[in-house]
């Protein structure tokens, strides 16, 4: 059989990855830590066809844009049987490229489907290393729940590992969808510009080292208030790198700032909730599931129920059966 289908879920970093030290091997500057979510995922089929003359790549039932197709083909070059092209069909249950980490679920699913389609049985560590070559954050989407990505120093040593695959306490995330259009500055370009020009970058490495240790302690203590506090501070410091770059830039828009203010205000009234943002304007709220209804009630009048998506901890990459 030369065909396999895999499903992988997105993850949102609680301690962010923002910068590479090796863009070819995709080695990050620092460790990072994330939560895989159940609500957003990508399902990808890969079929190798020895008679085909080129890769055929469909995303959400349409031919992939040339730049996306090229990125997928270059990734397939790492795993394909010699000279064998593939048919790839990928369906996203994620608003693409809006800071909801579609590349994480996409390359985790692609890494698994491309391997399984050849009858290979890589370990999840091996899949994590392979997914990394497609997109850094995809390294973590091989695993479910709370996941740590060890930065490492070469291809072998840079992979993710679960901290708690089945999250057994009330940690939950709610996405506030403010703008689901393509982001203006891709994360790859944004982080490269920051590493090259942001004077705060050396401090960021120290921030992450501290936050990784503190976050693991907070997870072990199941202290959601502390997890949220650390995640919010870490996200703001990541975004401060962007403002301090030359030229400076930001992923926030007016609605992002309004949402941040709303969450801060809600917390001041006694509801434990925090936010995090990635390479896009959308805001993710971190809270204990027992406060879900209170938070939804507070946010619905401002953002509308359609723009609020509750996500629970989700699973690692899964094999789907092909007919
Ligand atoms: C802000 O994984 O999208 O979401 O490795 O260049 O594909 P590439 O970048 P990507 O960057 C994710 C950045 C982030 C933080 C994170 O997920 O840790």
TrEMBL record:
Its EC number is 4.1.1.33. Pfam families: MDD_C (PF18376), MVD-like_N (PF22700). It is an enzyme of class 4 (lyase). Signal peptide: none annotated. Gene3D superfamilies: 3.30.230.10, GHMP kinase, C-terminal domain. Residues 176-305 form the Mvd1 C-terminal domain. One of its GO terms (molecular function) is ATP binding. InterPro entries: GHMP_kinase_C_sf, Mev_decarb, Mev_diP_decarb, MVD-like_N, Mvd1_C, Ribosomal_Su5_D2-typ_SF, Ribsml_uS5_D2-typ_fold_subgr. It comes from the Bacteria. Keywords: ATP-binding, Lipid biosynthesis, Lipid metabolism, Lyase, Nucleotide-binding. GO terms for biological process: isopentenyl diphosphate biosynthetic process, mevalonate pathway. One of its GO terms (cellular component) is cytosol. Residues 8-160 form the Diphosphomevalonate decarboxylase-like N-terminal domain. Belongs to the diphosphomevalonate decarboxylase family. PANTHER family: DIPHOSPHOMEVALONATE DECARBOXYLASE. NCBIfam families: mevDPdecarb. This is diphosphomevalonate decarboxylase. It comes from Limosilactobacillus ingluviei.
């Amino acid at each position: 059989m030369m065909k396999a289908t895999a499903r992988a879920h997105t993850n949102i970093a609680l301690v962010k990855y923002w910068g590479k030290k090796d863009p070819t091997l995709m080695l990050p500057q620092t460790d990072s830590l994330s939560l895989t979510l159940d609500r957003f995922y990508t399902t990808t089929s890969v079929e190798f066809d020895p008679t085909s003359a080129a890769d055929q790549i469909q995303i959400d039932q349409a031919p992939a844009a040339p730049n996306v197709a090229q990125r997928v083909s270059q990734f397939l070059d790492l795993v394909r049987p010699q000279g064998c092209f593939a048919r790839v069909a990928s369906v996203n249950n994620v608003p693409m490229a809006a800071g909801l980490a579609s590349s994480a679920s996409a390359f985790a699913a692609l890494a698994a489907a491309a391997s399984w389609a050849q009858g290979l049985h890589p370990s999840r560590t091996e899949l994590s290393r392979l997914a990394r070559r497609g997109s850094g954050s995809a390294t973590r989407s091989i695993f479910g729940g709370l996941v740590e990505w060890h930065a490492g120093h070469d291809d072998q040593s840079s992979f993710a590992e679960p901290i708690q695959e089945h999250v057994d306490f009330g940690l939950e995330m709610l996405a506030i969808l403010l703008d689901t259009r393509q982001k203006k500055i891709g994360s790859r370009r944004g982080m490269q510009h920051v590493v090259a020009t942001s004077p705060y970058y050396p401090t960021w490495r120290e921030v992450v080292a501290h936050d990784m240790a503190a976050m693991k302690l907070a997870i072990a203590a199941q202290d959601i208030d502390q997890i949220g506090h650390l995640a919010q501070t870490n996200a703001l410091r990541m975004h401060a790198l962007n403002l301090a770059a030359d030229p400076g830039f930001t992923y926030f828009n007016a609605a992002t700032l309004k949402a941040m203010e709303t969450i801060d205000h809600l917390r001041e009234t006694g509801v434990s909730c925090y936010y995090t943002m990635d390479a896009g304007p959308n805001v993710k709220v971190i809270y204990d599931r027992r406060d879900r209804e209170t938070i939804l009630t507070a946010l619905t009048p401002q953002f509308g129920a359609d723009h609020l998506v509750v996500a629970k901890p989700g699973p690692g990459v899964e094999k789907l059966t092909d007919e």
